[in-house]
Amino acid sequence: MKPSRPNSSKQGSGNRGSGKQGHSRTEPHRPKAAKRAQAKRPTTVGTVSRLPGRSAQTVSSDSLGRKPAPSQPDNPRSGERLQKVLAAAGIASRRECEQRMLEGRVEVDGRVVTLLGTKVDRACQEIRVDGEVLPKPKRIYYAVHKPTGVVCTARDPAGRPRVIDMLPAGAGRVFNVGRLDIHSEGLILVTNDGALADQLTHPRYGIEKTYEIQVRGQPDRAVLNQLRQGVHLAEGLARVVSVRIKKRHKNTTALEMVLAEGRNREVRRLFARVGHKVQRLVRVAVGPIRLGEMPRGAVRKLSPQEVARLRQAVAAGGKKIPSRSRKRPSSGCAAAPKRHKRDAAKGKAAVDKRAKRGRKPVSAGHGSRKSAARAGASRPPGARQQGRRVTRQGAGP
Question: What's the whole-model pTM score?
């Protein structure tokens, strides 16, 4: 009898007839409910999904539980960021404007914009917030004499008095151009022109700020030179444009200092590093705008001429290219006096050296080889050789 072989075709044959699939060794066992859910789940390719037994149709992102793709204007790379434009218009703070954008409450040219950082051109685009057209703000510029005890911040949790609270009602959303600490006083500019404010505070444009300072002690010339050359702070090397002593008292000194940059408490930290504590600090000028006779707490509007002078100072400062390396003179004329002094010193040393050796000094114009050859040519024949013999004889041991 032939040995019976296992019939592999019988395995799973009943399953085929009944419509069930046999389980392979590599495929894990899944319950029937999971298979039904997998069969009913749509397979999405892009935005087109195919359901079993149905034709292809478009499925929106909301039906799949996803957020819609943020929309943006046609030209998103030009202009200014939308949340910054809204904040500058006085709608709300920048963070609150971003929240309104995410909520879909901002429209640009009739389209809802939810993408943060979208750039718009306010001059040629229509912006709406909650259906209302964004009004174009009127640029305002104020000069404030900040007294001590007032802070330069837009929001203070401690409830201290702020510089923007000193402005007249209806000024809208404004911000300070630079800052003064709570213990300092003097001139501070307030505006809603963000571009000009950034230019006035950026070190690249070199807008100078002038301060009148009273320090403890008697700083000498070495201290002032150290301030001009630079003092190392935590952010790096900081140097003043100019500093001079106005008046000396018994225990204090009054100075005037000019800075072209604005770091946090820079004046106080500079004098602390050189060993003198600042007792009083008053800013008297920002670029071409001076404090003048304004009393403490006074506020005044800048005239159009003063604003134009500020813009001229920015334009002039932006063209300057700072260079710490010293420029060498392009022509030899500037270096001629030093060369003449050097040659005169060498000539004097040569004369002294020849005098020590007992020789006759060489007169002017006879120090080079050409002049010596000319002198030798004017002598009679044999005089030069005879002179050499005499010199050799006299120079013996």
Answer: 0.55
